[in-house]
């Protein structure tokens, strides 16, 4: 099944680009309801996350979160012997939700169909993590609990430590990346230069 997904998502079947399926799964959904629910959550938290991180950093975190949450999902599925597709969209959106709830734990939230019940963002995050941990431990197949947990943990880590470690120090990393790509292109390494 991994091989089928790999060749389906990459443009060149002989390519060794293993991140392509994980990146493209960031935009995958199981059904129209799944997509609608994810888009509603993303829309609800998008203004907060963009004001916290800015547009460019948000895009970098969102795409990274999709890859990371899909990878966590793959690892969990291989460990349990379940070879089902992994959809990284929910994991990436969990990153957004977890990042906002971590930075603004006292913000008041409500469920769309039950607006009379409010709760803090910190309480919501704890409940979601507890639910997904139970789902992963008990083998529930309602959601991709591993992807949700991977996304939530990445979001919490990023707004707590990652911004300082990665985003504020990105210039030397980007420069090293461009130098490495230039050297590989010059040696016939198959890389493309921009």
From TrEMBL:
Domain of life, source organism: Eukaryota
Provide one Gene Ontology cellular component.
mitochondrial inner membrane
Transmembrane stretches, start-end: 21-43, 49-75, 111-131
Entry keywords, A to Z:
Hydrolase, Membrane, Mitochondrion, Mitochondrion inner membrane, Transit peptide, Transmembrane, Transmembrane helix
MF terms from GO for this chain are: serine-type endopeptidase activity
Tell me which residues make up the Peptidase S54 rhomboid domain. 22-162
- EC id: 3.4.21.105
Q: Gene3D superfamilies annotated for this entry?
A: Rhomboid-like
> Is Hydrolase given among the entry's keywords?
yes
Enumerate the InterPro entries for this protein. Peptidase_S54_rhomboid_dom, Rhomboid-like_sf, Rhomboid_protease_S54
Entries under SUPFAM superfamilies matching the protein = Rhomboid-like
Catalysed reaction equations from the record: Cleaves type-1 transmembrane domains using a catalytic dyad composed of serine and histidine that are contributed by different transmembrane domains
| Chief subcellular location | mitochondrion
Query: A Gene Ontology biological process annotation?
Result: signal peptide processing
**Where would you find this protein in the cell?**
Mitochondrion inner membrane
Report membrane topology: Multi-pass membrane protein
Cite the PANTHER family for this sequence.
Answer: PRESENILIN-ASSOCIATED RHOMBOID-LIKE PROTEIN, MITOCHONDRIAL (PTHR43731:SF14), RHOMBOID PROTEASE (PTHR43731)
- Which family, according to UniProt? Belongs to the peptidase S54 family.
Q: What is the name listed in the Swiss-Prot or TrEMBL entry for this protein?
A: rhomboid protease
Organism field? Ceuthmochares aereus
The gene name on file is Parl
């Amino acid at each position: 099944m991994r091989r089928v997904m790999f060749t389906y998502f990459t443009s060149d079947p002989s390519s060794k680009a293993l991140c392509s399926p994980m990146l493209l799964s960031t935009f995958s959904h199981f059904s129209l309801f799944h997509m609608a629910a994810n888009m509603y959550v993303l829309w609800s938290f998008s203004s907060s996350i963009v004001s916290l991180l800015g547009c460019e950093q948000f895009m970098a975190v969102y795409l990274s979160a999709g890859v990371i949450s899909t990878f966590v999902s793959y690892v969990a599925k291989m460990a349990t012997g379940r070879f089902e597709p992994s959809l990284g969209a929910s994991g990436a959106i969990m990153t957004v939700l977890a990042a906002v709830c971590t930075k603004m734990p006292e913000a008041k939230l409500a469920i769309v169909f039950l607006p009379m019940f409010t709760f803090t963002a910190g309480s919501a995050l704890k409940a979601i993590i507890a639910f997904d941990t139970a789902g992963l431990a008990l083998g529930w197949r309602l959601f991709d609990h591993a992807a949700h947990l991977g996304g939530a943990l990445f979001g919490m880590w990023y707004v707590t430590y990652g911004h300082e470690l990665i985003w504020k120090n990105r210039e030397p990393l980007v420069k090293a990346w461009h130098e490495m790509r230039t050297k590989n292109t010059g040696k016939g390494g198959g890389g493309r230069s921009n």
